[in-house]
Design brief:
Blueprint (H helix, E strand, L loop, with lengths): L2 H14 L23 E7 L14 H10 L4 E3 L5 E3 L2 E6 L5 E6 L4 E3 L5 E4 L2 H12 L9 H6 L3 H6 L10 E5 L2 E5 L7 H4 L10 H7 L16 E7 L3 E6 L11 E8 L3 H10 L5 E3 L2 H8 L9 E2 L2 E10 L11 H8 L2 H8 L4 H5 L22 E2 L2 E2 L4 H8 L5 H15 L7 E8 L3 H18 L4 E8 L4 H4 L8 E6 L6 H4 L30 H11 L4 H17 L3 E8 L2 E4 L30 H22 L1
Parallel strand pairs: 1-12, 18-19
Antiparallel strand pairs: 2-3, 4-5, 5-9, 6-7, 8-9, 10-11, 11-12, 13-22, 14-22, 15-20, 15-21, 16-17
Length: 623
C-alpha cells in the first residue's frame, strides 16, 4: 500500500470519527417497529464459564465477550466495519510505512469492579502489556499478531534479545504511543483491534501476580462496562460505566448472564418465558418453530461469520495409552492414511446438523473464506493454485477406499488396525454432539471398522479447548479459527509453527513427511515467503494460495464448514453494534441496542436492506 493511500484513508476515517451516540443502524426505531429501550437490561444464559478474565491471554470467549465490553481499545470497527479512533484520537504513519504514532485521549481511566478510579489509561499500558505477553515464560496464547508485525518482538520472545527497549513498542510520553514494524504491513490498523493489542494496567497486573484475571476484582476496566458481579457457573453482571468517555454510545445499562449448563438446548424455552433476550434455535426444533404461526414470524438467519471450522489431525498426541497414541502417530504420518480420511468425510451430511434445509451453503473446501480477500479482480479462493479445490468436491468414497488400500499396504506390520481415533467433543454443544456421532458412523461405514475405530470422548464446556485442543488430547478434533486481522496470514495461523497458535492446533510442523531438503517444514517456508511479500498484493495472495494448496494436497487438516447462517430470535438490534473487519459478530455486544420486542422476520429483512445500503455509502465515504 502506498503512503498516499494510507494517509488518505486515515484522514477519511478521522473525519468520520465524530459519528457517535446511540443509534440503530437497521432503523429499528422507525414508526411501528420495535423501539429502543434506553438504559435497558439485556439478559442471557451461558453454558461455558470463562477460564480467565485475562483477555490478553485467551483467544476465545474472554476476548470476544469480556474484553470487548470492558476495555477501551486503541481503535475499533464501527457497525460498518470501518476503523474508528477510540483511545487513539489520531495517528500518523512514516513515509516508509513502518512507524505508526498514535496520540491518545487523556480522559480515560482504569476502574475497579466497585467503580472507583485506579489511575489513567496511558501509552505505558500498551508497552507493559506487550512486554508481559512476549515473555516466553508467561506462555501467552495470543501474542502471534505482535510477533508477526512488530520489530524485534519475535527475537525478544525467543530470548535472542533481552532488552525490551529494542522491541518496536514505545511510549514517547504518557499519551503518545509508537509502533515500529518489521516491514510495511497493509493490515496493521486492523490488527490493532484484536486482543493481542488490547491494553491492560501493567502496574496492577504486577500487583496481582498469579491472581490476575481469577476474579472480577483482580482485573481493571477502562471500557464502557464493568463486571460488578462474577459468581462462576452461577451469574455474571456487567454495568455500564457512565463515566466512560463515550458512554452515550451504549444504550444497554445492565447485562445479566445466568449460567445454565443446558443453555444451548433450553434457550428457546427461556426466551419464550421472557427470561433471556436472545437465543439460537437449535436444528432439532427448527421445524417446530417454522411451523408455528407466531414463532415463525420472529425467526431470522444470521450472516456467515469470519470463522473457519476444520478437522485438525494431531501430530503430537498426548492422551492415555489406552487410546493408542503411538499407533495413531505412526498412522497419521502416512499421507495415504490422511487422504483416506480427507476424502472420506461427507461434509454435506455433517452440515445437516447445522442447516438441514440448505447444508450445501455451509460446506467449505479452503481455510481462507470466499469473498474475503481479492487482488487484481480475483477472489483469493479463485486464484489458480486454489480454484479447482475451491470448486471441487472432497468427499469421494471410492477415492477414500483407494487411499485406504495404499495405507494398509504401506503400514502393514508397522501399525495396528483398526487405528483408534480419539475424538473429543463438548457436551454443552448439542449440534457438535450430533455431528461427531454422525461422523463416527459415517467414517466407520465408508472406511470400515477394520481400518479405524472412532472413539468419542465427552468433555464439559468450561475449559474445553484448554483441556483438549491445547493439551493435545485428541487424534482428530473439530476446531475453529477466525483471523486476528484482514490477511490470509492470520487465517493460516493455526498451522504456523513459528507462533504459539500453531502449537495448539495439531502441530502440523511436526508432520514427518512435511520436511524439505533443508530440514525445515515445507509449509512453514512457503508461509514465511508469502508473508515477506508486502508490496505486490496479487503476488502476496498467490504465494499464500500456493502454501494453502500444499497444506490441502497433503491433507494435514480438512476445511469443514463455514460458521454462521444460524437461526435466532432476539430483542437485540443486530445492526447497531460494533463489528470486526469481517462484519457483524453476535459475540460482540458492544454498542448494540436492545428493543422492547423482537424484529419480525419481515422487519428484519427491511432493516437489513437499509443497513446494507447505509454500509455501502459509509464504505465509499471512508475510501
Amino acid at each position: 500500500m502506498k503512503k498516499t493511500q494510507i494517509v488518505l484513508s486515515v484522514l477519511a476515517l478521522a473525519a468520520l470519527a465524530s459519528c457517535g451516540g446511540a443509534k440503530t443502524a437497521g432503523g429499528g426505531s422507525s414508526s411501528g417497529g420495535p423501539q429502543v429501550v434506553k438504559d435497558g437490561v439485556y439478559r442471557d444464559a451461558y453454558a461455558g464459564e470463562f477460564t480467565t478474565l485475562d483477555y490478553n491471554n485467551n483467544p476465545t470467549n474472554t476476548y470476544g465477550w469480556h474484553g470487548n465490553l470492558t476495555v477501551c481499545t486503541l481503535l475499533e470497527h464501527d457497525e460498518y466495519t470501518i476503523i474508528r479512533p477510540n483511545l487513539a484520537k489520531d495517528w500518523t504513519i512514516s513515509p516508509d510505512g513502518t512507524v505508526y504514532t498514535f496520540n491518545l485521549r487523556n480522559d480515560v481511566d482504569w476502574y475497579t469492579n466497585k467503580g472507583t478510579v485506579y489511575g489513567p489509561a496511558t501509552a505505558h499500558d500498551f508497552v507493559e502489556t506487550a512486554e508481559w505477553m512476549l515473555i516466553k515464560e508467561n506462555a501467552n496464547q495470543i501474542n502471534n499478531s505482535i510477533i508477526a508485525t512488530i520489530k524485534n518482538a519475535k527475537e525478544f520472545n525467543e530470548g535472542t534479545i533481552t532488552d525490551f527497549n529494542q522491541v518496536g513498542i514505545h511510549a514517547l510520553d504518557d499519551y503518545t504511543l509508537e509502533y515500529t514494524l518489521i516491514r510495511p504491513t497493509p493490515y496493521f490498523l486492523s490488527a490493532l483491534t484484536y486482543a493481542s493489542f488490547f491494553p491492560s494496567p501493567g502496574k496492577f497486573r504486577a500487583e496481582m501476580g498469579q491472581n490476575y484475571g481469577t476474579s472480577n476484582d483482580t482485573v481493571l476496566y477502562s471500557g464502557p462496562y464493568i463486571l460488578t458481579t462474577f459468581d462462576p457457573e452461577n451469574k455474571r453482571v456487567y454495568e455500564r460505566n457512565d463515566k466512560y468517555w463515550n458512554a452515550q454510545r451504549y444504550t444497554i445499562k445492565t447485562i445479566e448472564q445466568i449460567y445454565n449448563k443446558e443453555a444451548g438446548t433450553i434457550g428457546p424455552e427461556l426466551f419464550q418465558r421472557n427470561e433471556i433476550d436472545e437465543t439460537l434455535i437449535p436444528v432439532a426444533i427448527q421445524d417446530e418453530w417454522f411451523n408455528d404461526p407466531e414463532r415463525s414470524k420472529i425467526l431470522y438467519q444470521e450472516p456467515s461469520s469470519k470463522y473457519t471450522y476444520f478437522l485438525s489431525f494431531n501430530f503430537d498426541p498426548r492422551y492415555g495409552k489406552e487410546y493408542g497414541p503411538d499407533n495413531w502417530k505412526k498412522a497419521v504420518n502416512n499421507l495415504n492414511f490422511r487422504k483416506s480420511i480427507y476424502h472420506g468425510v461427507n461434509k454435506t451430511l455433517m452440515a445437516t446438523t447445522l442447516d438441514p434445509k440448505n447444508p450445501e451453503q455451509r460446506k467449505l473446501n479452503t481455510f481462507v473464506l470466499p469473498d474475503k480477500y481479492s487482488a487484481g479482480g480475483s477472489d483469493y479462493t479463485q486464484l489458480p493454485p486454489l480454484k479447482d479445490i475451491t470448486n471441487g468436491v472432497t468427499y469421494d468414497v471410492k477415492l477414500a477406499q483407494d487411499y485406504k488400500a495404499k495405507a494398509l499396504a504401506e503400514l502393514q506390520g508397522k501399525v495396528e488396525f483398526p487405528v483408534k481415533v480419539m475424538m473429543p467433543y463438548a457436551t454443552t454443544a448439542a449440534a457438535l454432539t450430533n455431528r461427531v456421532q454422525l461422523l463416527e458412523q459415517q467414517l466407520e461405514r465408508d472406511l470400515g471398522t477394520d481400518y479405524i475405530d472412532v472413539i468419542l470422548m465427552p468433555f464439559p464446556g468450561t475449559g474445553y479447548n484448554t483441556n483438549t485442543r491445547d493439551a493435545g488430547v485428541f487424534s482428530i478434533i473439530e476446531a475453529n479459527w477466525g483471523p486476528d486481522y484482514a490477511d490470509p496470514m492470520s487465517v493460516l495461523d493455526p498451522f504456523n509453527g513459528d507462533i504459539d497458535v500453531g502449537k495448539r492446533y495439531g502441530r502440523v510442523y511436526l508432520a514427518e513427511d512435511g520436511f524439505g531438503p533443508d530440514g525445515k517444514p515445507v509449509f512453514q517456508s512457503m508461509l514465511n515467503k508469502a508473508n515477506e511479500e508486502v508490496l505486490d498484493l496479487a503476488k502476496r495472495y498467490t504465494l499464500f494460495a500456493e502454501a494453502e494448496k500444499y497444506l490441502l494436497d497433503n491433507a494435514y487438516a480438512l476445511p469443514y464448514y463455514l460458521a454462521g447462517f444460524n437461526y435466532y430470535v432476539s430483542r437485540l438490534d443486530p445492526f447497531s453494534g460494533h463489528s470486526t473487519q469481517d462484519g457483524r459478530v453476535r459475540l460482540k455486544l458492544s454498542g448494540r441496542a436492545i428493543f422492547d420486542r423482537p424484529y419480525t422476520t419481515e422487519e428484519y429483512k427491511a432493516a437489513e436492506a437499509r443497513f446494507n445500503e447505509a454500509r455501502e455509502a459509509a464504505l465509499k465515504a471512508a475510501q
